[in-house]
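Researcher: For the record, we're logging two predictions in this thread. I'll number them. Prediction 1 follows.
Model: Prediction 1, sequence and structure:
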Amino acid sequence: MTEPAVTRKALFDALIEHGVLDEQDAHEFSYGPNGDERPPLGRILIHEGVLSVGQVMDVVGRQVDHPELRIGELAVQQGYCTAEDIERCLEIQRDLLAHPMEELLGRRDVDPAALVRALSSYIGALESALGSAALHALAPV
């Protein structure tokens, strides 16, 4: 299951717009301070039993000749797994990155009023993207 594009982007746009984060902080929250702190997809594919170490090495080697293709695409092309296997492992990879709100709530330098304004703006973007009826249907009773 892929995350709707509006959710993460709209959240970071709202956090920047309302001064909760600057663009550098937003990048670090989105990808981690070193660019990407999620485990590599190959490691997840091995851990989940989708590919062997040898298959991951083969796919990584093929990527040298085909840098425009992603690891998952090459693994599917080689018949090592299905697109559904890749999507499931990508979802695991995405879930391993902490949600930005968890990180923000632990920071002392965040202005609570600016955070509330940013979240209100984010909810507005979600309502526009999903339709307010769909969003209200998701609200707890």
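Researcher: Logged. Prediction 2.
Model: Prediction 2, sequence and structure:
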Amino acid sequence: MNKKISTPIAIGIILILAILVGVFTITQFSAIKREKIQTTEITSLSDCDKIQESLYKNECYVSIAVKKIDLSICDEIKEAKDQFLKDDCYSKIAKAKQDLSICDKIIEESSKNVCYVGIAQVKKDPSICEKIQNPKYNIIESCYMVVAKAKQDSSICDKIQDQTYKESCYKQF
């Protein structure tokens, strides 16, 4: 039996392969761009300003802000759709400076809570965990756990309400 693939099926297969190759190429190109932004090739805001795509430009601003521990660079991120990057930038600078007031600049509540956890961990201060608003996903318990571990103080585990988290906290010691 000699089976031949019909022309429409062959064209369909070729089109699918071309699309897959195109998607793979774009994905690889994006990964290379992101990697370049995160390396030392980019050292100044003027380097970031040369980037056309707003997402990559804003990732560049975050990278420079963190390298220089400069909060004002986070404010270069102006587009509302990239607010998550601006919040991430504020959070990283707040942690680096151990400055709780910077967390208050964060718009998105869960990002603000993550900022509080980061500073509580760095400062080894469980009272900061109490600033967490509308906690979801046991973030207060997680906050106490990371502070207890950072401070090497199992008594902080007593503040945890959830029994499973409390037991996990004590297991760290």
